[in-house]
Structure formats: C-alpha cells, structure tokens
Amino acid sequence: MSLISFFRRSPNALFYVIGLATFGFFVIMLVWGDDGLAHLVDLQRQKNQIAVQNAKLALESVELLNQIQVLASPQALEQAARTELGLVRSSETVYVIEAK
User: I need a labelling partner for 52 at 20 to 30 A (CA). Which of 12, 18, 31, 89 fits?
Assistant: First the structure.
C-alpha cells in the first residue's frame, strides 16, 4: 500500500500526521531548544557552583573580619611592631647577643 493510497482511503490521516509532526517538533524544542530542559539543567548546575563559591567567600569574609579585629587591638599592634619591624620602646634597652 502506497502512501498516496493510504491518504486517499483515510482523509483525516494527513491531519494526524501533521499533528504528530508538530507535537514531535515541540517536544524536541522543549528538550534541546535554546531555552529547553538541557539549558535549564546547565543553569541549575551553574547556580549550585555559584552558591558554593558564595558560601566559601562569605566564610573567608568572616575570617578576615575576625583577623582585622584581632590585629586592631593594641597588644597585637605592639607585637607586630616588635616582631616584624624590630621596634622597641624608648625606655627599653636592647641587648644583641651574637652566636659564635
């Protein structure tokens, strides 16, 4: 049975074929189109990566704020001046002992 004789025997068959092809096209576009499910899955993956990165940065920010508070104390400033810059108070005497 040829395709032409099939359509002559069943006049509504052409509408069914066109409807099925249209439905198939829409399903393909829904899954693989520019804004389809594949794109949605990729966006969700990117969102999750950014959320993880954001959480890491928030934790780092809190740690840096804590470090700023600690270093802003007078004791920490004095310790940094002594160890890193080698400064001493004017009332102190420095003894340098050289190793042999």
Answer: 31
